[in-house]
Write a structure and sequence with these properties.
Structural class: alpha+beta
Bound molecules: glycyl-adenosine-5'-phosphate
Strand content: 25-35%
Number of strands: 23
Helix content: 25-40%
Strand order of the largest sheet: 3-9-10-16-13-12-11
Largest sheet: 7 strands, mixed
Radius of gyration: 25 Å
Shape: globular
Length: 443
């Protein structure tokens, strides 16, 4: 029987198995900073690679960039992040805790001690730092709060060098920084996070068609990474809550254990950003249609995907706890068994090699098999504990296939492959193993 996982249970599994650790832990941590461990970085990279493959490599109409993280501060004046990227900050006059007023759901006193709150002040969320040795305003720069602006600033270069024709998109994956007033809920809201964004340039008259297409693309992506539609909500954001650049925004929200919250966003940014950059830089940001000769500033549809929120969401969706265990053999356990039913493409370990003995002949064969199959992805080797325990260890990190090597393997040159989800076991010839697994991962 499965039950919905709590954040506490999820965190303890992720820490115990090396997915995600508290950042700077030996120094007592740093508020809301998290480090991706050996399994976490594999999962995160698999998500980013799958996204890049789908939205950049497999499309003729999208190209990628990887821009500098610190940009000329004029970028953020033009984009109006300097003047508009604010959250309303209130402070409790008694306990001095700070809150985002728009997160207090209308409460007029401190949610912790019921103390009186200050009037809201506008707090700019961009991190400031300095270029070069002197800390004066001439050298002041910002850490980017979104990856998007580089796609606008580089628009003329991309058009010139690729001869891309509207409609087309520029994509980027990278870090963004926001000095959030109330970070929290693990990796859901942090001050340093990653985004996967596409700025898709269109003719104004076609914006609705492209907006609808991208919404469909986002829905298909979510289905393919194992997020069930019943846990998602598509929220049309009213004008007074939309970002300053947006004429229409749909937030894709997910039912997290801490409530329904934004996972991704889809925005119609009009020609706001390109026009602003043209005005502030004095450079021509228009596009000339090579067929009609018409010159105009394209409008933009922006699908945006948070990487860390994707990691959290796929983990919550994949988690299953089976009371009493699911094994029918004498290895069956009385306590709960955890299975992380991650889509195979996302699993941090693709296959585990489990020799039944630490003795040399099995070790040798295991090493040969390791080298043979490592091209299918990250392969783990585990020789300690009973085979039942080893299966369970792999199940709880979501490994799709376990390969058991026994003494018969030395005679028949075959191994047993166990499927994480069905627990079915198949005897496969060692020479066929690579093809067998490759086919499984392709399906
Ligand atoms: N370029 C548009 C943009 O940045 P956003 O809604 O502010 O829009 C996009 O952010 C996505 O980035 C969000 O949907 C979310 O997935 C992720 N995100 C935003 N703030 C975050 C934070 N503090 N921690 C983790 N992820 C965050």
């Amino acid at each position: 029987m499965s039950k919905k996982v709590t954040m506490e249970t999820m965190l303890s599994l992720l820490k115990r198995r090396g997915f995600i650790f508290p950042g700077s832990d030996i120094y007592g941590g740093l508020a809301n900073s998290w480090d991706y461990g050996p399994l976490g970085v594999e999962l995160k990279n698999n998500i980013k690679n799958l996204w890049w493959d789908r939205f950049v490599r497999q499309r003729k109409d999208v190209v990628g960039i990887d821009a500098a993280l610190i940009m000329n501060p004029k970028v953020w004046e033009a984009s109006e992040h300097v003047s508009n990227f604010h959250d309303p900050l209130v402070e409790c006059k008694k306990c001095h805790k700070r809150f985002r007023e728009d997160h207090l759901e209308g409460k007029k006193t401190c949610p912790d001690c019921k103390g009186e709150l200050t009037a809201p002040t506008q707090f700019n969320m961009m991190f400031k730092t300095f270029l070069g040795p002197s800390e004066d305003s001439a050298g002041q720069v910002y850490l980017r709060p979104e990856t998007a602006q580089a796609m606008f600033v580089d628009f003329p270069h991309v058009v010139d060098t690729t001869r891309a024709k509207v409609p087309f998109g520029i994509a980027q994956i990278g870090k963004a920084f926001r000095n959030e007033i109330t970070p929290g809920n693990f990796i859901f809201r942090t001050r340093e996070f990653e985004q996967m964004e596409i700025e898709y340039f269109v003719e104004e008259k076609e914006w609705e068609k492209h907006f609808d297409n991208w919404l469909k693309e986002m829905k298909t992506w979510l289905k393919d990474i194992g997020v069930k539609d019943k846990n998602l909500h598509y929220v049309d954001i009213p004008e007074d809550e939309r970002a300053h650049y947006s004429k229409k925004t749909i937030d894709i929200e997910y039912d997290y254990p801490f409530g329904q919250k934004e996972l991704y966003g889809l925005a119609y940014r009009t020609d706001f950003d390109l026009s602003q950059h043209q005005k502030h830089s004095g450079k021509d940001m228009s596009y000339r249609d090579p067929v009609s000769g018409k010159t105009y500033i394209p409008h933009v549809i922006e699908p945006t995907f948070g990487v860390d929120r994707t990691v959290l969401t796929v983990l919550l969706e994949a988690y299953e706890e089976i009371k009493g265990g699911r094994s029918t053999t004498k290895e069956a356990v009385k306590e709960s068994e955890i299975v992380l039913r991650l889509p195979k493409a996302l699993a941090p370990v693709k296959a585990a090699i489990l020799p039944l003995s630490k003795k040399e002949p099995l070790q040798k064969l295991s090493d040969e098999i390791f080298n043979k199959i490592s091209s299918v992805g990250n392969v783990q080797y585990d020789e300690t504990g009973s085979i039942g325990k080893r299966y369970r260890r792999q199940d709880e990190i979501g490994t799709p296939y376990c390969i058991t090597i026994d003494f018969d393997s030395l005679e028949d040159n075959s191994v047993t492959v166990r499927d994480r989800d069905t627990m079915e076991q198949e005897r496969i010839k060692v020479e066929d193993l690579n093809n067998y697994l490759s086919e499984k991962f392709a399906s």
